[in-house]
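Researcher: Quick test of sequence recovery. C-alpha cells follow.
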C-alpha cells in the first residue's frame, strides 16, 4: 500500500470526424487540476508533484447512506484526453437532456491520465527522465483523483475506450466494490502479444531508432521516426470498409494521408507518445478476471484491427467474469474499426441495457 500527501485538444491519433450537430444543449462544463505529492510509480521512480487534469459535467448526488450515487467516469485511449468525450459525436449522443447519461442527472468525470492531455507528462520538462508509468499507475492516480480530489467514493458506471477499456478491467479488479457497472469498449483483457504487441514495438522503435531522437533530449522533433510511428498507428486503427467508402479513389486516399500526417506532426511530442505506448508493456488482467464484482457490458467491433474477433479471446475470457456479457458489433455502415468505441450511436442500446440492471 502506497501513501501520498495530497492537495487539492488532446494528443489523439483519430480519423477525421464528419460533422455532427448537437441537438441538445449540455450543462456547463467544469475543469480543474488535482495535484498529488510524492507519487511513487511501480517502476520505483517518483514525482514530487504530479498534476491530474479533469473535466466534469453535472453535480454529485449523495444517497441516504452518504455515498455518491450518480458518478460516471469515462477513460480515454492512448494519446487521447478527457476532452475527446466532450465532442458532439460522443457528448451530443449521451450527455444531453433525456439521454442515457443526462448530465442533469449524472456527475460525469472525464480525467486526463498520467502523461496525457493537460496532466503532467514528459514534454513538460523531464523528457526521457520522466517516470516510466504503466496502466496500474494510471489507475491508481485516477482513484486518488476520485477519492481524495473529487470526494467520490463510488461510481454508478465506469466506461473506457481502447486504453481506457483496458484500464476498466484493471479498475474492476483493483477496486471491485467501487462501482456498480463497467462498460469496456474496444480491447481484450489479456497480455498484449501477437500482432498488437508487434505493432506497438514497431511504433516505439521507429521513434527511438531515429538518430534525431537523441535518447529523448532532442531539440527538434525526430520527424523521420514520428512519420514511421504515425504510419504504423494509422494502420492499427484503420477500418478497411470505412476507408474504402470514404476514400474511393487513389487521389482521395493520397490526399487524406498527406493531410493526416501534416496535422499529426504539428501536434505530437515524441516522448509523450513513446511513453503512452510503452505504458501497456505489463498489462494483463486475465489472472484476476474472476474477482470482478461489477456488472460488465464489454463491447468490441468486428472490424477492429487491434482486437480482431477471429482470435476468439473475448468469448473465452468473458466466461471468467461472473456478471459479464460480451457484445461483438457486426461490421456495418455505422462501425468504424477501432474508432467505433467513440461512436455511441452504434452501441448505446447496450449501455441502456447495462444501466437497467440492478
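Model:
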Amino acid at each position: 500500500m502506497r501513501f501520498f500527501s495530497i492537495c487539492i485538444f488532446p494528443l489523439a491519433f483519430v480519423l477525421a470526424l464528419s460533422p455532427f450537430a448537437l441537438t441538445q444543449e449540455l450543462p456547463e462544463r467544469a475543469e480543474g487540476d488535482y495535484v498529488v505529492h510524492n507519487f511513487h510509480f511501480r517502476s520505483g521512480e517518483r514525482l514530487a508533484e504530479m498534476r491530474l487534469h479533469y473535466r466534469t459535467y453535472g453535480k454529485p448526488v449523495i444517497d441516504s447512506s452518504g455515498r455518491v450515487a450518480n458518478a460516471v467516469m469515462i477513460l480515454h485511449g492512448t494519446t487521447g484526453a478527457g476532452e475527446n468525450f466532450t465532442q458532439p459525436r460522443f457528448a451530443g449522443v449521451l450527455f444531453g437532456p433525456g439521454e442515457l447519461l443526462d448530465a442533469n442527472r449524472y456527475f460525469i468525470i472525464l480525467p486526463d491520465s498520467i502523461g496525457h492531455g493537460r496532466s503532467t507528462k514528459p514534454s513538460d520538462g523531464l523528457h526521457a527522465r520522466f517516470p516510466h508509468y504503466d496502466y496500474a499507475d494510471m489507475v491508481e492516480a485516477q482513484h486518488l483523483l476520485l477519492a481524495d480530489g473529487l470526494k467520490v467514493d463510488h461510481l454508478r458506471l465506469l466506461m473506457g475506450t481502447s486504453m481506457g477499456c483496458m484500464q476498466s478491467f484493471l479498475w474492476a479488479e483493483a477496486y471491485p466494490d467501487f462501482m456498480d457497472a463497467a462498460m469496456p469498449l474496444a480491447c481484450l483483457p489479456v497480455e498484449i502479444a501477437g500482432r498488437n504487441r508487434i505493432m506497438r514495438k514497431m511504433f516505439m522503435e521507429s521513434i527511438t531508432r531515429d538518430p534525431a531522437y537523441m535518447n529523448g533530449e532532442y531539440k527538434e522533433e525526430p520527424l523521420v521516426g514520428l512519420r514511421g510511428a504515425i504510419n504504423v498507428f494509422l494502420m492499427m486503427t484503420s477500418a478497411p470498409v470505412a476507408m474504402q467508402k470514404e476514400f474511393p479513389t487513389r487521389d482521395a486516399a493520397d490526399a487524406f494521408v498527406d493531410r493526416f500526417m501534416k496535422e499529426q506532426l504539428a501536434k505530437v511530442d515524441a516522448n509523450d507518445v513513446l511513453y503512452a505506448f510503452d505504458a501497456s508493456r505489463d498489462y494483463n488482467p486475465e489472472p484476476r478476471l474472476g474477482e470482478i464484482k461489477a456488472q460488465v457490458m464489454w463491447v468490441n467491433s468486428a472490424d477492429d484491427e487491434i482486437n480482431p474477433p477471429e482470435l476468439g479471446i473475448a468469448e473465452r475470457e468473458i466466461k471468467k467474469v461472473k456478471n459479464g456479457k460480451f457484445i461483438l458489433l457486426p461490421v456495418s455502415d455505422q462501425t468504424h474499426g477501432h474508432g467505433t468505441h467513440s461512436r455511441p450511436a452504434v452501441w448505446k442500446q447496450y449501455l441502456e441495457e447495462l444501466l437497467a440492471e440492478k
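The CA atoms of residues 188 and 313 lie 7 Å apart.
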